[in-house]
Specification:
Helices cover 0% and strands 53% of the residues. By secondary structure, it is mainly β. Strands 2, 4, 5, 6, 9, 10 and 11 form a 7-stranded mixed sheet that branches.
Length: 119
């Protein structure tokens, strides 16, 4: 089992910045990939950004150039740096950890943190 604890959400004006943190209960070297997803009201959960254990990153087109995902292996923590925020970034942001298994992959989720961007 992997516990993920998110923090850093809040209310910010358009154009502002926030940093989300996701602390894992195990060494993130043991996790194949970690990422951030978001879900806005009435919409499906969507990928925002991911980072593998080797440091490879992937971003949704809507956040490229504005968001950066990074990891601190010593703190077992993954960050999402969000700049130039837009009202359409408003959503609950969830941290995800994926561990690749022999038979199937295992996904773990945090409780979510609300990000609200006012216009």
């Amino acid at each position: 089992q992997v516990q993920l604890v998110e923090s850093g959400g809040g209310l910010v004006q358009a154009g502002g910045s926030l940093r989300l943190s996701c602390a894992a209960s195990i060494s993130i070297f043991s996790i194949n990939a970690m990422g951030w997803y978001r879900q806005a009201p009435g919409k499906q959960r969507e990928l925002v950004a991911t980072i593998t254990s080797k440091g490879s990153t992937n971003y949704a087109d809507s956040v490229k150039g504005r968001f950066t995902i990074s990891r601190d292996n010593d703190k077992n923590t993954v960050y999402l740096w969000m700049n130039s925020l837009k009202p359409e970034d408003t959503a609950v942001y969830y941290c995800n950890a994926r561990i690749v298994g022999v038979i199937r992959d295992n996904d773990y989720w945090g409780q979510g943190t609300q990000v609200t961007v006012s216009s």
